[in-house]
Amino acid sequence: MQIKEINTNKTNYIDILLIGDEDKNMINKYIEQSKIFALYEENILTSICAIIKVNNDTIEIKNLATYPKYQNKGYATILINFICKKYKTEFKHLILGTGENDKILNFYKKRGFKETHRIKNFFTDNYKHPIFENGKQLTDMIYLKKLL
């Protein structure tokens, strides 16, 4: 297993980034300023994580995605642990925003994230089309935070 930082041609990873955020325009708002880390298993890309610096204390996961055939194998957890270890001495907090999807919320909460606040109507106000997960339309962005 190998994790590589992607510094060039970040748009080459748009297909996997679209798994974590299905709006290309939204991805384009953060992709160039993001640090992107790609996880490979036997030279096959399985997962990706894009992070940005929010301020001197906080970094944010803007996108964490795994190709469906590699999901539920621990790859996203490996990337989260890698990010936490890499940035532990430089930052205090890791935050992220996600939709109201119990499976995803539980995934993050099991890894030490706690809900901090919500941005009402984020998905309906910022996406051109409705976003559905597990048959439920996403409306609010739920923010979670973890101490590094």
Can you walk through the features of this model?
The structure is a single chain. 28% of the residues lie in helices and 36% in strands. The protein has 148 residues and is α+β, with helices and mostly antiparallel strands. It has a single domain (2-147), classed as Gcn5-related N-acetyltransferase (GNAT) (Aminopeptidase, 3-Layer(aba) Sandwich). The chain is globular, with a radius of gyration of 15 Å. The relative contact order is 0.15.
The main pleated sheet reads as: 7 strands, mixed
Query: Mean pLDDT, rounded to whole units?
Result: 92
Structural class: alpha+beta
As a whole number of angstroms, the C-alpha radius of gyration is: 15 Å
Shape: globular
How many structural domains are formed by the residues? Answer: 1
The string of secondary-structure elements, in order, is EHHEEEHEHEHEEE
Briefly note the CATH topology name: Aminopeptidase
CATH architecture: 3-Layer(aba) Sandwich
> What's the CATH class label?
Alpha Beta
Kindly state the percentage of residues in helix. 25-40%
How many distinct helices?
5
